[in-house]
Amino acid sequence: MSFLHEVAISSDGSGAISVWEPKGGTLLMSYKGSGVLNPQAFCLLGNDYLLGVEKGKPMIHTWPVNSQEKAQLRLICPGRISSMEASPDAMYIAVTVETKLHVWQISSGRLLATASSHYQPITVVKWSADSSFIVTGGEDGNVCVWQLSRLICKQTVAFGIPNSSAKGVTGLTEPLHVKSQHSLPVTHVTLSKLGAKSRVATVSHDRTCKIFDLCTGEDLLSLILDTRLTCVAFDTTEDNIYLGTSDGPIKSVSLRQVPRTRDHHIQDLTGSSDFVGHEKQVSSVSVSITGLTLLSSSLDESVKIWHTISRQCLRTIHHKGPVLGAFLHLMPPALHDYDFNPKVLLKSFDKTLEGNADLTLEIFSMDTLSADLDNDLHSTSSNQIGSFSSNQTVADQTVSTTTQSNGTNSKIGASDSSLQIEIDKLKKINKSLYEFCVKNVLHSNPATMAGLSNGIAAGKKNNKGRKRSNEDVKYREQQTKQLGFKGRKKNGNKKKKKNGLAGGKKLNFENTRPRVSTVEGLLNFK
Questions:
Q1: Residues near 26 by Cβ (< 8 Å), separated by ≥ 6?
Q2: Helix, strand or coil, per DSSP, at residue 330
Q3: Residues 251-281 pLDDT 10s
Q4: DSSP state of 68
Q5: Which of 368, 424, 430, 497 is 20 to 30 A from residue 447's alpha carbon, by CA?
């Protein structure tokens, strides 16, 4: 890729933010309205915005890439920002305030996580190329690796803690790895471009550069120099590493020539492998995509473009003040498009984690985790962490890793199948209950449920002329027997005849057995 597709973005001590064309040194764009920016809080948000934080301020300034004026929206944070960086996918932003790490969702402004594992203020924060990991370095010499999916998951969702009233509390706020090899404050951190398979390089005032694996945390190499290190950068293929020093030279170390020992001492800083040209401390280094160009900024008010193979300075761009930070980036397509409307939606930041209980986020991970990490996740008091979608896309992955990941996927699939069986069983029970209620409650007579059916039975009627069912008759006979009523005798008519007119006695109303239904019958009754 040629120079024309990459631009250099720099910030100096005068408060100027500039975009340069590296090959000819032409000024393409300048942004106004800012003070001196924090070099560890200066980045691009996708291809739409430029973000910057003034030193000692709790506010993030935003500039559309096609406008010199600042946007009206200001992102307010809980305290003074020590470092800040947006994720490469332009979905999240990581901000450090003193010893705490804050993660916001850009599109909604929700505060997704707050975590703290440093004992002293954090100096630098960086994202991995796939936006899945965050690396922080602090004044305490510690370097912490955070996994985004573990950091922003909710306890009530991820673990299903019974009787838990802590809604909106983040889940695993402990870092994935904590590296404490440095004895002095960490000055800079960089990651390669391979996502979860990346390597992390950290430099410190203790004159050492530590390289370790991002996913496993395994220490790979320790470079020891005789001067303080201020910045570090990998090339795209991880063949070389470039170290900026406090004296001015930039040291280049080839990672193809692996030393025999893990601790490698580098004594000569004036050899042929140095980039010599800066007179003061180097504030930043950045490598182009092709790996043929190195950009460096220094407190001597200059930005230099180097050829990495010949180590010759191709161009020097002078500034009005000490250059605090500079980096190479692909040219934003809308840099000179005055009718451009940003695609990234920015909203004001929430100050607390409240109101995030019902928030559901999908985290896409393009790489698999290590074996130790996966076992750790499945053995922590039977806690199940959400659902992580993992796809193996790294070309150099071994067969053993593939077999192990398949075993992990089979375990997850088995647990999902058991849950599905339970769900199907509950659905079946619910369906049978519903059918029973519809059949026996909604579409049947209540008397039938108690054994007292009011259905029509042929041949028998009640006092109101309604026909009685056989069940109703049997029920009434049982009830009368229980009460001691013997019923009418069959020879009752014979006794009436003997005691009636045949006996010669007059009938009166007291001893009259038959009933008179009408008045005429009463008058004629003698």
A1: 20
A2: strand
A3: 999 888 767 788 888 876 445 568 999 999 9
A4: S
A5: 430
CA dist 79 and 82 (Å) reads 9
- Helix boundaries (H) for 221-370: none
Q: Could you give the CA distance from residue 11 to residue 15 in angstroms, rounded to a whole number?
A: 7
- The mean pLDDT of the chain is 76
Amino acid identity at 113:
A
Nearest alpha carbon to residue 106 among 126, 86, 131, 125: 86
Sole residue written with tokens 């071994």: 398
Distances (CA, A) of 337 to 24, 31, 348: 22, 15, 26
* Six token digits for residue 406: 């398949």
Q: Are residues 342 and 48 in contact, defined by beta-carbon separation less than 8 angstroms?
A: yes
Instruction: Please name which of 234, 250, 239, 321 lies closest in space to residue 282, comparing C-alpha atoms.
Output: 250
Residues 399, 256, 242, 60: what is their CA dihedral angle, to the nearest 10 degrees? Answer: -10
- In the chain, domain spans: 3-330, 367-426, 488-526
* Main-chain phi, psi angles of 426, to 5 degrees: -65, -35
* 20 CB-near residues (< 8 Å, 6+ apart): 7, 8, 9, 10, 26, 27, 28, 303, 317
Q: What is the CB neighbour count within 10 angstroms for residue 89?
A: 14
Enclosing H/E stretch for 408: helix 399-437
Q: What are 336-352's pLDDT values in tens digits?
A: 887 788 888 888 888 88
Side chain identity, residue 444: S
Q: pTM for the whole thing?
A: 0.65
DSSP string of 175-236, one letter each residue:
-SEEE---SS-EEEEEE-SSGGG-EEEEEETTSEEEEEETTT--EEEEEE-SS-EEEEEE-T
Give burial (CB, 10 Å; 0-12/13-18/19+) of 522. Answer: exposed
Which helix (H) or strand (E) segment holds residue 416: the answer is helix 399-437
Q: Which residues pair with 135 in a beta bridge?
A: 126, 145
Strands (E), 362-458: 364-365, 389-390
What amino acid occupies position 470?
N
Q: Report yes or no: 306 and 315 within 8 Å, Cβ to Cβ.
A: no
